[in-house]
Specification:
Elements lengths: L6 H8 L1 H41 L17
Helix pairs in contact: 1-2
Length: about 70
């Protein structure tokens, strides 16, 4: 947490429950970021592996399309 937002300062202003919530939120944010980073790297590695496999068997890869999962209606 930034220096100006210590758990003690949050607790003194907002109470112990808020300080506990802030601590858990910080931990969840770090773990979420680690999970996101892992998934991004895993996806990139799998795409590279599959592309290499296509090339090894003589394919051109022209029929492969990569898109994002955020496409909406």
């Amino acid at each position: 947490m930034p220096e100006e937002y210590t758990l003690e300062s949050i607790g003194s202003v907002c109470g112990c429950d808020a300080a506990g919530y802030a601590a858990n939120k910080q931990r969840g944010g770090r773990n979420s970021a680690k999970g996101r980073d892992y998934e991004l790297m895993y996806g990139a590695v799998r795409i590279a592996e599959l592309a290499a496999q296509v090339i090894r068997v003589g394919g051109s890869g022209e029929d492969i399309a990569i898109g994002d999962q955020t496409r909406g209606p």
